[in-house]
């Protein structure tokens, strides 16, 4: 197996700025911030500084920032905490499986999604709940904000990070530190109005979750967020150009390809497409042997052997699927090498 | 003609279907792979062919 020349998979290593800061963070932020010793007070101050950073980038107040050491728990907190008695729960066919699992418990109503990824939101009542994904993590399609929905709104920002602003009518919101090249195992959860939200978890005090939190990782994540947003502002245009280049190449040089969304409906750093008559597992393995890492939503790559529910819900081809994330570090050269390798492999597979 | 792809995983049923349609304008496809129905929908749109569901794991595909 060759060394890695290009990473296009969704997960990214910790941002170098956060990595450089980690040892210092563990030196300074190890103490329990709820105690009154000097070192605990310092940890508490550091935690508040991190909260300030998250609040300013995510568009919430500092006192609304809640850390979760299990980001997926936020789906339950954000939705179940807003459902009361007669509430109807609306969610879309491209939402994450975690949302599906909660909807199963509450007889949720699944809203279909069109081929272009657009969603017709329900009218709903004031106590109804809508789960809304800012962007879809598989396809990169940006979802129009349901600003007219009169009920409660759970915002799943786990794929967009700080890149999509919260709509004014948000009720609860969830982010994942990994989105901004921060450490894994850290979610950020926020509640807009404490009056309508009830903690669905058994809890002993005002804390939302009683699981232990690593302050050094929170500090590293705040550093990563700032650095990532700076990088992204610089690289956004370059990533858009690369994204357009890949789309053009797929249509003109490879053909028989089903690409999710278009340049104006997707974020520039995510791209999903399916190649007709191609076995995705073989393709991913062959690319990996050439030092190129990509993801796939095809059934043969899933642990349950089911095709991606997102692709199936949109009516996109589910076999031969390739999912790519263009990172701030992605170069035009690595994309060019990838495209040529892909073309050769697809021609070889199809013959 | 009838094309038995029962037990075969994606994308084999769709590959065999496309091959079969080269010689036969209508094919009855038997396939129980969970990706077959979503892929038939997408494949029909992409290749401008037509399909209909005849029953469980049974599809009629027409070349246009």
Q: How would you sum up this structure, described in words?
A:
The complex is a heterodimer of chains A (351) and B (64). Chain A is 36% helix and 14% strand. Chain A has 351 residues and is α/β, with parallel strands linked by helices. Chain A folds into two domains: 6-12 and 231-350, Aspartate Aminotransferase, domain 1 (Alpha-Beta Complex); 65-213, Type I PLP-dependent aspartate aminotransferase-like (Major domain) (Aspartate Aminotransferase, domain 2), CATH 3.40.640.10. In chain A, β3, α4 (97-105) and β4 form a beta-alpha-beta unit. In chain A, α1 runs antiparallel to α5 (215-254), α2 packs parallel to α5 (215-254) and α5 (215-254) packs across α8. The longest helix of chain A has 40 residues, at 215-254. The relative contact order of chain A is 0.16. With 64 residues, chain B is α+β, with helices and mostly antiparallel strands. Chain B has a domain at 1-25 and 47-64. In chain B, 38% of the residues lie in helices and 30% in strands. Chain B is built from two helices and four strands, in the order βαβαββ. In chain B, strands 1-2-4-3 form a four-stranded mixed beta sheet, covered by helices on one side. The radius of gyration of chain B is 10 Å and the shape is globular. The relative contact order of chain B is 0.25. The A-B interface holds A 256, 258, 274, 276-279, 298-300, 305-307, 311-312, 315-320 and B 9-11, 14-15, 18, 33-35, 38-39, 41-43, 45-47.
């Amino acid at each position: 197996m060759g060394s890695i020349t290009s990473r296009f998979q969704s997960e990214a290593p910790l941002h170098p700025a956060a990595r450089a800061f980690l040892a210092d963070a563990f030196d300074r932020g190890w103490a329990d911030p709820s105690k009154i010793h000097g070192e605990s007070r310092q940890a508490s101050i550091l935690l508040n500084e991190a909260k300030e950073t998250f609040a300013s980038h995510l568009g919430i107040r500092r006192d609304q920032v809640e850390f979760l050491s299990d980001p997926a728990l936020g789906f339950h907190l954000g939705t179940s905490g807003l459902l009361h008695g007669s509430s109807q729960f609306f969610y879309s066919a491209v939402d994450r499986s975690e949302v599906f699992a909660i909807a199963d418990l509450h007889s949720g109503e699944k809203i279909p999604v069109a081929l272009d990824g657009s969603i017709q939101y329900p009218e709903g009542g004031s106590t109804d709940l809508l789960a809304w994904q800012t962007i879809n993590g598989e396809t990169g399609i940006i979802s129009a904000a349901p600003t007219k929905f009169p009920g409660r709104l759970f915002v799943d920002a786990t794929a967009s990070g700080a890149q999509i602003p919260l709509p004014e009518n948000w009720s609860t919101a969830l982010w994942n530190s990994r989105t901004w090249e921060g450490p894994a195992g850290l979610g950020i959860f926020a509640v807009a109005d404490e009056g309508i939200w009830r903690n669905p978890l058994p809890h002993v005090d005002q804390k939302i979750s009683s699981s232990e939190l690593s302050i050094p990782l929170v500090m590293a994540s705040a550093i990563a967020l700032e650095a990532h947003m700076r990088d992204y502002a610089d690289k956004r245009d370059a990533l858009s150009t690369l994204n357009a280049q890949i789309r053009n190449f797929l249509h003109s040089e490879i053909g028989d390809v089903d690409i999710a969304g278009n340049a104006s409906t997707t974020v520039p750093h995510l791209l999903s497409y399916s190649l007709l008559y191609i076995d995705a597992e073989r393709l991913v393995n062959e690319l990996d042997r050439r030092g190129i890492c990509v993801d796939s939503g095809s059934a043969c790559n899933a642990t349950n052997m089911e095709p991606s529910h997102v692709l199936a819900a949109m009516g996109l081809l589910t076999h031969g699927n390739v999912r790519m994330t263009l990172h701030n570090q992605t170069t035009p050269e690595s994309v060019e090498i990838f495209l040529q390798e892909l073309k050769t492999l697809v021609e070889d597979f199809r013959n | 003609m009838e094309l038995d792809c029962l037990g075969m995983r994606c994308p084999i049923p769709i590959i065999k279907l496309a091959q079969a349609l080269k010689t036969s304008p209508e094919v009855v496809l038997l396939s129980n792979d969970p990706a077959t129905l979503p892929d038939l929908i997408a494949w029909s749109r992409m290749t401008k062919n037509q399909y209909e569901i005849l029953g469980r794991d049974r599809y009629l595909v027409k070349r246009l």
